[in-house]
C-alpha cells in the first residue's frame, strides 16, 4: 500500500469570534476569557476602547495571567490562529483584510474612537459571513450596534452581556434595543455557550448587503471618497466635528448614522456627544476672549480722561455681562448628568 506523501493543506477558518467593549471592559474580558480553554478552536478578535497614549500591554498582561488562550496585539499581515486572542492596538483600527489576514490601520476615527468596534465587526461580517460570533460587553453609548447589525445581516450570531449585570450597560442595551439578538446572558455563561456554538453554527454564505461592503472597503482603504458616501446616503446640513467637512446621513430611525467623505463616522449619539464637546470648547474660548477684552478696556480706561475713560469703562461692563452669561451656561452644563458624554 502506497503512502500518501502529499502534505495536507492547512484548512482555512470558517468561523471567528469578535468582541467589543469599552468602559469596564478589562474586568469583563477577564471574566469571559478565563472560561475559554487553551485548545479553543477559533481565533478571538477584540476591540476595547483605549486612549491613544496607552499601550494596551496592561490588558494583555492581565489576560495572559489567566492561563487561557494566548493573547497578543494584532499585526498587519498576521495570520489568525486557533486558541489565540488578538487585541486592537491603541490609536489603530483592527480589521480582517484579504486572505483572512489581520489589517491594522490609521483610518479616520469612527464614533470618536480608534480603535472602534464597528469597523472590526463589519470586516468580520464581510470576510466570514455566517461564521461570525459577535459579542458586545459593557461600555458607554452605542459603538458596536451598527457592526452587530452587519453581522446579523450576514447570517452571524449576536451575543450581548445582560445589561442588568453590565458595569456600563449602554452598549449592550443599545444592541438589544435595535437588533433581535440571539443570546442575552451574563458573562459567566458565555464561555460554555461559545464552545457549544462552534459545531452548531451555519456555514452557509449569505449575500453581503452592498452598504456593508462599501463601509468595509472605506475602512480598509483608510480614505473614503465622494462616490462611496453618495451611495450610502444623502448630504445633511451638519459638519463633521473631526475635519469640518460635510456629513452624509447613513441609515434612518434607530440606525441613524453619519459619515464624511474623509472617513469619519458617527452614530447619532456620538455625533451629539462630539457637538456637545465642541460647544463647550467654544464657550471656554469665548469666556477667555471676553475676559481679555474686559481687562484691556479697563487698562485703557486708566490711561484716559473724561469721555474716553467713561466709554472704555462702559464697554468693559458690557464684556462683564457676557462673561457672567457664559459662566452661567458652563455651570449649567456641568450640572447635567452627562449621559451623552462617553469616556
From TrEMBL:
Catalysis performed (reactions): [protein]-L-glutamate 5-O-methyl ester + H2O = L-glutamyl-[protein] + methanol + H(+)
EC number(s) stated in the UniProt entry for this protein: 3.1.1.61
GO molecular function per UniProt: phosphorelay response regulator activity; protein-glutamate methylesterase activity
One Pfam family from the record: CheB_methylest
Active-site feature positions: 22, 49, 143
Swiss-Prot/TrEMBL keywords: Chemotaxis, Hydrolase, Membrane, Transmembrane, Transmembrane helix
Entry keyword Protease: no
Stretches that traverse the bilayer: 120-141
Start and end residues of each CheB-type methylesterase domain: 12-201
GO cellular component, one term: cytoplasm
EC supergroup of this enzyme: hydrolase
Entries under InterPro entries matching the protein: CheB_C, Chemotax_prot-Glu_Me-esterase, Sig_transdc_resp-reg_Me-estase
Highest taxon of source: Bacteria
Any one of the GO BP annotations: chemotaxis
PANTHER family (UniProt xref): PROTEIN-GLUTAMATE METHYLESTERASE/PROTEIN-GLUTAMINE GLUTAMINASE, PROTEIN-GLUTAMATE METHYLESTERASE_PROTEIN-GLUTAMINE GLUTAMINASE
Protein's UniProt name: protein-glutamate methylesterase
Source organism: Aquiflexum balticum DSM 16537
Amino acid at each position: 500500500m502506497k503512502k500518501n506523501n502529499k502534505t495536507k493543506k492547512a484548512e482555512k477558518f470558517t468561523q471567528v469570534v469578535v468582541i467589543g467593549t469599552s468602559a469596564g471592559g478589562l474586568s469583563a474580558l477577564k471574566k469571559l476569557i478565563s472560561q475559554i480553554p487553551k485548545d479553543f478552536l477559533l481565533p478571538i478578535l477584540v476591540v476595547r476602547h483605549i486612549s491613544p497614549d496607552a499601550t494596551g500591554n496592561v490588558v494583555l498582561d492581565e489576560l495572559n495571567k489567566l492561563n487561557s488562550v494566548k493573547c497578543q496585539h494584532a499585526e498587519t499581515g498576521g495570520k489568525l490562529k486557533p486558541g489565540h486572542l488578538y487585541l486592537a492596538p491603541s490609536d489603530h483600527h483592527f480589521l480582517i483584510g484579504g486572505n483572512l489576514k489581520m489589517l491594522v490601520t490609521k483610518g479616520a476615527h469612527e464614533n470618536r474612537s480608534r480603535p472602534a468596534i464597528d469597523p472590526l465587526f463589519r470586516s468580520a461580517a464581510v470576510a466570514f459571513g455566517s461564521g461570525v460570533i459577535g459579542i458586545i460587553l459593557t461600555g458607554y453609548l452605542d459603538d458596536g450596534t451598527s457592526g452587530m447589525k452587519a453581522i446579523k445581516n450576514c447570517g452571524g450570531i449576536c451575543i450581548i452581556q445582560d445589561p442588568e449585570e453590565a458595569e456600563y450597560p449602554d452598549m449592550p442595551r443599545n444592541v438589544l434595543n435595535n437588533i433581535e439578538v440571539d443570546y442575552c446572558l451574563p458573562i459567566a455563561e458565555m464561555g460554555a455557550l461559545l464552545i457549544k456554538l462552534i459545531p452548531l453554527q451555519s456555514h452557509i454564505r449569505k449575500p453581503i448587503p452592498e452598504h456593508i461592503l462599501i463601509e468595509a472597503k472605506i475602512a480598509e482603504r483608510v480614505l473614503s471618497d465622494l462616490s462611496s458616501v453618495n451611495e450610502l446616503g444623502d448630504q445633511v446640513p451638519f459638519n463633521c466635528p473631526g475635519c469640518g467637512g460635510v456629513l452624509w446621513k447613513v441609515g434612518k430611525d434607530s440606525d441613524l448614522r453619519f459619515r464624511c467623505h474623509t472617513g469619519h463616522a458617527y452614530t447619532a449619539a456620538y455625533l451629539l456627544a462630539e457637538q456637545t464637546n465642541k460647544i463647550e470648547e467654544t464657550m471656554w474660548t469665548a469666556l477667555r476672549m471676553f475676559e481679555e477684552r474686559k481687562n484691556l478696556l479697563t487698562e485703557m480706561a486708566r490711561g484716559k480722561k473724561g469721555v474716553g475713560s467713561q466709554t472704555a469703562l462702559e464697554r468693559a461692563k458690557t464684556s462683564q455681562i457676557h462673561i457672567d452669561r457664559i459662566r452661567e451656561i458652563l455651570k449649567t452644563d456641568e450640572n447635567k448628568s452627562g449621559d451623552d458624554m462617553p469616556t
